[in-house]
Amino acid sequence: MINDFKVKIVDNYKFYSFSTEKAEIVFSTNVNGIDFKKDTEEGKRFLSMIPKWFNVEKVLYLNQIHSNNILRDPEDVVDGDGIITNSKKIAIGVFGADCTPIIVVNKNNGTIGVVHSGWKGTLNGILTECIQKINNDLDSKESEIEVFIGPHARKCCYEVSYELINDFNSKEIYKGKINDKRMLDLTECIKLQLQALGVKEENIHDIGKCTICNDEFYSYRRDKDLSGRNFAFVYLK
Fold first, then answer.
1. What is the pTM of this model?
2. For the residues 115-144, what does the mean pLDDT come to?
3. CATH code for 6-236?
């Protein structure tokens, strides 16, 4: 289901947020030029502002490599595409510019995770791996999980090769359910993973926004090398 994420304005910069009893979920926009591209001075500056803006102690993020690597409380900026934690006031986040940012919250015991799920991560089930790692490492259960799907390239705009469509449809979990000709539905792929895990439908929250046709978000598909980066993050209160 699509939920009403609230607009949050911080220093004239626009974010979308969703608040639960345990956690705060935040998706950035590009409004007024905010850009979290971490290998630029501007990106580093904006990342350094998050603790002040959101009252957290630090921000953890990764060198994203389209892998299925999920790390718990990484001490450095290392290679990977997902983070889990149960530490309070630590923001964990992923970058995107068409790939899907997904945030996982255990609504009972205060554990959180975030994943960067591009087509490769989605094809290989990175979200499934993240939830399984939260369950194994942080004493969580699927019935307690809430999932928040952020802005990404959606079926309306995300045209890919038939070869990639065939790769998805070769997997039983996706077969025949994730495309309209060459238009790939990453949102549906993610929901199918959650359905297979037994995550309740009412616990799946989708912001419902496409990065390609919505110009308040960065899109690499739309803007190529001129594109900045969106940042999705979550922290325990």
1. 0.96
2. 95
3. 3.60.140.10
